């Protein structure tokens, strides 16, 4: 019999010239499971893929960020620093990459500059290589200190343009921001499209404009979510325009509110002259690994699984819509989602057209929920008031003066226009002192940082840390067996149930217990 | 408060010139539910979308084909001709389109030319406008009669290139086939990518080569499945190369083994100068309609929901893999799928590299299963033997002479190289006579055609037709209630459950069984 047929594509008869190698950042270990399964994946379920990821030929491996850190200590009883060191050890040949919220670090408030510096030093010492630094408002003053800190420790500083659309957002504006970021000393730039809004033509135009306006040798990375179904085309156009690296997730943890599949990117480029040099067999093994792991997290999976193009008008990142639905349901208003989605663009305009990404997406989204449930701006959330008063930084558009006045009246705070962190005194020593007494704290700077970032959750975590990780994934076979048993009435023993049973006219006291 | 913000994309500041309008064929009514939910959607669940589909601005609406016809009479007790006439009535402004298997019509064997002509006449009379005519082997002799018949009734004849890849398939070969099809009198051509193998660069090259080689004014349609995650990019490249019409499915019945979402196509083209002129609000309503309908067919949904790039080597259309899995499971060999997938390219090579599409996909796939389970070619299926002997037509490559000899020995049939239908005597009159006696047959040519196409199923259908359609969709609320009832022990008869019952202080051992 014939051997396995080798089947080249038709274009192989006249191969295109090799034009350029495109780098790939693999998202499976961070943003993929954050977007698809509420960041619940345990380190234990990732280590088995690390050898193949390390050898596959990625430009970098994204594996750490605010949500993974938060989920580690809140749900998994896992020390995020152990996770980082484990990745470092298991992937010695890879650039490890993280997402850093500028002056917010991994938390939800601004930190003083000394804390920002300490965080960068410690994460670099524990193995981090590439820092993608962003600010939700695209206010470069909020990323300045973090970028300087990354440069000081000799690591890769990547400046970020959070992509959004509004009457005020223009290609020229993004190029100006790109200039500012490069002047801060960035090693590369990222176009971050967290809501899958970056259509192909704007992707091409934006990458080209940055290359032409800031420099052809400026490294441009492109990060897109897949929610709207259109962004693999955007990656193609970005590559044609000169993008150096694009972000994807291995297919078994891709699509929906997640990302475009790594393997599809590879196939997309066949015959184009662009290559990734990724190792197909390694990719297949990584895919198989996560195909086995994924069913363990079914109960955490996003309800959004298909393509959703209506977010082109609401601009809300896929992951946020389910949050809003749950907020509305808690208020008994689960049927008012469409009203809220229509309100979001209005709130965003009133706030000066911020991009919608953590934390601005939550702040604008929650205010939109309040507006729908209680009437427009009858109640301002504390965070929305701070946003209106400049405590998160500058927005591109003017903030509605009437609502700024309401925020001022409600909070008794004055509007500011300085860099928010300029108002903060150094706080590291105070944080060290406040952490020292915590039950289970080991005196390390890492524990201080955990406490600084998540003051509500850290004490409980540190106290329980010795119990070791809790894997919240569930074996699908076990889950199925449980369901089957329930259906067959053959469940576990239960507590006795008490009945009063009248039999042939006589009442009996009966206790029934499954045994 | 501000009105809803109008948010143009950044590129709107320097709009691209309008270059060209691209037509769209909507697949929701045929291939979408065929690929996603085993063709089970009832007419009743489609009529509500027809007004919006009719007004949305599509180039055509695909709504009929072999599998829909088959499912109508086999599962839904629905007359496929009534379905066609209903669509005609509900979508008076639309081109209705069907998929026709050349000389096989909607069945699995070759029919004599008089039957082919009668089928085309009757379907045109019942409302069909556009006939996409294909042959699984790309043997143009097998589509000649059907194309001539479509021309005779004054309808739109579309010739089809079934896209596949092999060492023998070249752009030049496809252009030659395109020439042949245009010489048969086709009004347009379709590149049919049933397995999602058409990568972006070959898509561009193929469309461009056809336009340059056959004529810039030759209408080229492109049909891609979405299974490999890469084909929306292929549609972009095909459009850039000059494609006139592309096929998509409304987002709520898209992706997986189905197709790229219509709305994503619209968004993809924003700012490019290519437009679709589809009506966004109509699309939203069509989407909402099928989002409501889809959960009714959960139990028929394809197990493949994500992206699958391994089919680039096996070339098996997404829908077929689940068929194979079920064949293997029936033989207690559910664990041997990977071996079968590796065997398929070998069987395909032995058969002269046919494209894999109905019926060649089933024939090659089943032989691959037999080879794995019983050893290579120990048993030939009757269909595979016929394929090897030329009874389905010509293949591009030479068929393995050793296996041809085995087929000859097994079947006592001689190899042929004429057009298979040349060996068939006229059969219409015989079919009329054979149908006349069937219980429930109404004497119409339509009933004769139903009997001709599905002789095993038609008698039962005709006898039961008066009972009216059976909608096999299930209300999701009803399904959930049923499950809940089962879990609460309120289901069908079960095995006995053992309790300890304490009655007036005395413990009893009790077994309870639902009867």
Can you tell me about this structure?
The structure is a homodimer of 515-residue chains. Chain A is α/β, with parallel strands linked by helices. The first copy, chain A, folds into 3 domains: 284 residues, Aldolase class I (TIM Barrel, Alpha-Beta Barrel), CATH 3.20.20.70; 112 residues, Cyclin A, domain 1 (Orthogonal Bundle); 37 residues, no CATH class. Chain A is built from 21 helices and 12 strands. In chain A, the strands form 3 sheets. In chain A, strands 2-3-4-5-6-7-8-9 form an 8-stranded parallel barrel, surrounded by 7 helices. In chain A, strands 1-10 form a two-stranded parallel ribbon. In chain A, strands 11-12 form a two-stranded antiparallel ribbon. In chain A, helix 16 packs across helix 17. At the A-B interface, helix 8, helix 9, helix 10, helix 14 and helix 21 of A face helix 8, helix 9, helix 10, helix 14 and strand 11 of B. Chains A, B: InterPro entries: Aldolase_TIM (IPR013785), Carboxylase_cons_dom (IPR003379), PCB-like (IPR055268), PYR_CT (IPR000891). Chains A, B: It holds the Pfam family HMGL-like. Chains A, B: This is Methylmalonyl-CoA carboxytransferase subunit 5S.
């Amino acid at each position: 019999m014939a051997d396995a047929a080798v089947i080249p594509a038709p274009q192989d008869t006249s191969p295109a010239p090799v034009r350029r190698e495109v780098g790939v950042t693999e998202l499976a270990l961070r943003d993929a499971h954050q977007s698809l399964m509420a960041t619940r994946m345990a380190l234990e379920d990732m280590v088995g893929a690390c050898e193949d990821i390390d050898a596959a030929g990625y430009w970098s491996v994204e594996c750490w960020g605010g949500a993974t850190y938060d989920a580690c200590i809140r749900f998994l009883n896992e020390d995020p620093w152990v996770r980082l060191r484990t990745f470092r050890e298991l992937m010695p040949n890879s650039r490890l990459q993280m997402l850093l919220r500028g002056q917010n670090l991994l938390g939800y408030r601004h930190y003083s500059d000394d804390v920002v510096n300490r965080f960068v030093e410690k994460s670099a010492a524990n193995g981090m290589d590439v820092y993608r630094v962003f600010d939700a408002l695209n206010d470069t003053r909020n990323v300045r200190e973090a970028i300087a800190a990354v440069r000081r420790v000799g690591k890769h500083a990547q400046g970020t343009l959070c992509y959004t659309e509004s009457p005020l957002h223009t290609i020229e504006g993004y190029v100006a921001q790109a200039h500012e970021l490069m002047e801060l000393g960035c090693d590369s730039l990222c176009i971050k499209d967290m809501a899958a809004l970056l259509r192909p033509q704007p992707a091409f135009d934006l990458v080209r404009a940055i290359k032409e306006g800031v420099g052809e040798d400026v490294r441009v990375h492109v990060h897109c979510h897949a929610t709207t179904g259109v962004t693999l085309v955007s990656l193609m156009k970005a590559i044609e325009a000169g993008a150096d690296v694009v972000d994807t997730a291995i297919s078994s943890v891709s699509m929906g509110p997640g990302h475009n599949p790594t393997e599809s990117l590879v196939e997309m480029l066949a015959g184009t002259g662009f290559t990734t040099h990724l190792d197909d067999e390694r990719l297949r093994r990584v895919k198989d690994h996560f195909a086995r792991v994924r069913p363990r997290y079914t109960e955490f999976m996003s309800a959004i699984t298909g393509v959703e193009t209506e977010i082109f008008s609401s601009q809300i990142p896929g992951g946020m819509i389910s949050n809003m639905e749950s907020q509305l349901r808690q208020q008994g208003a689960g049927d008012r989602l469409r009203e809220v989605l229509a309100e979001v663009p209005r709130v965003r305009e009133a706030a000066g057209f911020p991009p919608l990404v953590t934390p601005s997406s939550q702040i604008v989204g929650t205010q939109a929920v309040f507006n729908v449930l209680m009437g427009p701006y009858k109640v301002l959330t504390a965070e929305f008031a701070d946003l209106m008063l400049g405590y998160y930084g500058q927005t591109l558009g003017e903030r509605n003066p009437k609502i700024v006045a309401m925020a001022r009246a409600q909070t008794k705070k004055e509007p500011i226009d300085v860099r928010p962190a300029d108002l903060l005194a150094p706080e590291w020593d105070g944080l060290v002192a406040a952490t020292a007494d915590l039950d289970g704290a080991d005196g390390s700077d890492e524990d201080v940082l955990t406490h600084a970032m998540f003051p509500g959750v850290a004490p409980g975590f540190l106290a329980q840390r010795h119990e070791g990780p809790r894997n919240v994934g569930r074996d699908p076979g076990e889950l199925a067996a449980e369901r089957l048993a329930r259906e067959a009435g053959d469940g576990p023993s239960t507590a006795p149930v008490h009945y009063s049973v009248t039999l042939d006219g006589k009442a009996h006291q009966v206790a029934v217990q499954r045994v």
